[in-house]
Amino acid sequence: MEAITWVLVHRGKHVQLVMGPAGSGKSTYCRTMMAHCENIKRKVHLVNLDPAAEYFEYEPSIDIRDLITLEDVMEELDFGPNGGLIYCMEFLLNNIDWLEEELGDYDDDYLIFDCPGQIELYTHFPIMRDICGTLQKWNFAVCGVYILDSQFVEDTSKYFAGVMTATAAMINLEIPHINVLSKMDLLLKKAKQEDLAQYFDPDPLLLTEDVNRKTRPKFHSLNRAVAHLIDDYSMVSFIPLDVTDEDSIDYVMSSADNAIQYGEDVEPKEPQEFDVEATE
Ligand SMILES: Nc1nc2c(ncn2[C@@H]2O[C@H](COP(=O)(O)OP(=O)(O)OP(=O)(O)O)[C@@H](O)[C@H]2O)c(=O)[nH]1
Ligand SMILES: [Mg+2]
Known about the structure:
Binds to RNA polymerase II (RNAPII). This protein is of the alpha/beta class and about 280 residues long. It has helices at about 25-40, 70-75, 80-95, 95-105, 120-125, 125-135, 155-175, 185-190, 195-200, 205-215, 220-230, 245-260, 275-280; strands spanning about 1-5, 10, 15-20, 45-50, 60-65, 110-115, 140-150, 175-180, 240, 265-270, 270-275.
């Protein structure tokens, strides 16, 4: 007797571009998602775009350090770390054929890009924007995953600064975007979940009251204006990520998937015929 089994495959090319300030937890996020996908048997590849990266638990499938490293640029061209990083990223843009060739093998695949931590790359330099535009031109659906350290929510004025940079990145890159609050395991040890809720989905009134208590009256109307700006951009909400909690990891992954409609392009592949009797 023969039975037919349909194998589902995801059509299209998908990218998560993991960005955020230095030390916010980008590489840890990438490692966590790689491990999660390994557990659920989902095929993903790590792409390293950080020319200063040193160590990876999961070997990147594509690595900018094969093209250029920050160490070489600093040594040979006498650049400092920040200027050197910008030089490396511009070098990547000028040699984008290298990336195209490397990506050529990953048709119908899901790629997680670990990016450098220099915030200016996302907020006002055109480099990341050009990289995003190029990936989209090559038919990749790109989701920006902006990682903000959860220590930012311990203080409303720090939170304002974090939200402003996340917003600047979102506006500059113009790609589907999610914001993730990292290191929740550390924060949850100190604060109650109820106290944090206001930051995940901010209420301008509560934020204004809180920050006004800590600032001089001459700043109160500015505080109110910033809180309203945050509220107006209702897409500035944060998804908490606790890397010690599998449900939390799964929720963040689904949110990124939704942003780029991963899973809506599933197509049945060639039916495979199995000889049932032979397996009995
Ligand atoms: N407890 C805890 N520590 C974390 C978490 N995420 C990151 N860290 C720690 O924070 C530090 C920075 O984490 P990375 O993942 O290297 O951050 P990054 O954003 O890749 O840093 P750069 O690439 O240098 O910009 C490391 O010491 C991590 O161990 C987390 O979810 N929980
Ligand atoms: Mg890193």
